Design the sequence.
């Protein structure tokens, strides 16, 4: 197998890794409620996908104070 003949400098290593950063997520507004979600996913806020109700949204129950 091929092996490097010389050690790669810190500068060259860091230049090589310059493109390894994680990009920003692609988010689109929900057609029903307007909250930002990844494309082609059911909205976790309202439960709609492509204009249709697919999943009933979860409703938080208030804690009973005792």
Sequence:
């Amino acid at each position: 197998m091929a092996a490097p003949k010389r050690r790669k400098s810190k500068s060259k290593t860091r230049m090589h890794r310059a493109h390894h950063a994680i990009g920003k997520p692609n988010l689109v507004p929900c057609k029903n409620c307007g909250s930002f979600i990844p494309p082609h996913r059911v909205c976790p806020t309202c439960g709609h996908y492509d204009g249709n109700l697919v999943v009933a949204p979860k409703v938080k129950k208030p804690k009973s104070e005792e």
